[in-house]
Amino acid sequence: IDVAMLKRHTKYSGVNPSEPHINLFWEMLESFTQEQRRGFVRFCWAQDRLPANDAEFERTKTRFQIKAR
After folding, report:
1. Higher pLDDT, 25 or 60
2. pLDDT in tens, 8-59
3. In whole angstroms, what is the distance from residue 27 CA to residue 23 CA?
4. Are 49 and 38 a contacting pair, CB within 8 Å?
5. Contact 53, 47 (CB under 8 A)
6. pTM for the complete prediction?
7. What angle do CA 9, 12, 13 make, to 5 degrees?
8. Which residues contact 54 (CB under 8 A, 6 or more apart)?
9. Residue 24 belongs to what H/E stretch?
10. Hey, which of 9, 22, 41, 44 has its CA 20 to 30 A from 51?
11. Which residues of 14-52 are buried (b: 16+ CB within 10 A; e: fewer)?
């Protein structure tokens, strides 16, 4: 699971992507093993993998959203 690619396809709502807690989130996700990352993806999308590349992200309209309440 490519965290950098997931980050490129993340939308933010009501929160600035450069806020410290957002940076900590990405650092934490980057520190995960691939197995832990698959668990995270399974939790968020109910599947074991993300699209394979940027084009597939766009074609499938897959996105990850981080938002404030």
Report:
1. 25
2. 999 999 999 999 999 999 999 999 999 999 999 999 989 888 999 999 999 9
3. 6
4. yes
5. no
6. 0.85
7. 145
8. 5, 8, 9
9. helix 20-31
10. 22
11. eeeeeeeeeeeebeeeeeeeeeebbeebeeeeeeeebbe
